[in-house]
Automatic annotation (TrEMBL):
Protein name: B3/B4 tRNA-binding domain-containing protein
Record-annotated B3/B4 tRNA-binding domain positions: 49-202
Signal peptide span: none
Any Pfam family: B3_4
Organism superkingdom: Bacteria
Provenance organism: Polyangium jinanense
One of the record's GO molecular function terms: phenylalanine-tRNA ligase activity
Length: 209
């Protein structure tokens, strides 16, 4: 289902999830929403060493993970601190909770909106995609991305609008952008992530660990 190009730093974990009903009919569990509040207790916690290692991972191909192009995990820290992170849906809320506490960027896509084959690799110079409903684009050159047959669809900064989850989503793929500088962290975070989803009634299948 997923191939990964050789990379000296990447230690990715990926799995698929099937929800018992469309996301628009499922409320994120209170336990997950609680994880998105300041000071919430969690099995993992991030620090400056994690932040630095993640930036080094994204920087390897030539991408500059700063400013508006910083890792999504860093955005979550700021959003929670400012009280600006609201509930989106059960899939995204769970993804955000694990990313926030593990310090690892995580992508979650609607599998039914993606066209196989799926591959992880570094985007070429000039590649772009729209990442929100307003039509804004991100320059992907040098950035590790998840690709499908139509092009890049997700990464550790901003996921593509065309494969984002929505009210009708029932099948997703999650990719944890881990690094060999933090050995085993992606695997540990993925196991916790899957547990949270299973507790919410979803079925998960490991793609790579």
């Amino acid at each position: 289902m997923l191939t990964i190009d050789p990379h000296p730093l990447l230690e990715a974990a990926a799995f698929t999830t099937t929800f018992p009903a469309p996301l628009g009919e499922i409320e994120a569990p209170a336990s997950v929403r609680a994880l998105l509040t300041p000071g919430a207790a969690a099995p993992l916690s991030a620090d400056e060493a994690v932040r630095s290692a993640v930036r080094d991972l994204l920087r390897h191909g030539g991408y500059k993970p700063t400013g508006r192009g910083k890792p999504s995990s860093e955005y979550l820290v700021r959003a929670v601190t400012e009280g600006a992170l609201g509930s989106i849906n059960a899939a995204v809320d769970t993804c955000n909770a694990v990313s926030l506490h593990s310090g690892l960027p995580i992508s979650v896509i609607d599998l039914d909106r993606a066209t196989p084959p799926l591959r992880i690799g570094i985007a070429k110079p000039g590649e772009k995609y729209v990442f929100n409903a307003s039509g804004q684009e991100i320059d992907l050159g040098g950035l590790l991305c998840l690709f499908d047959a139509e092009g890049a669809s997700a990464n550790g900064v901003k996921d593509a609008q065309r494969t984002k989850t929505h009210a009708g989503t029932r099948h997703t793929m999650s990719v944890l952008w881990g690094t060999r500088a933090l050995p085993g962290r992606a695997r540990e975070a993925a196991r916790w992530y899957r547990t949270l989803l299973e507790e919410a009634g979803a079925t998960v299948d490991v793609v790579t660990e």
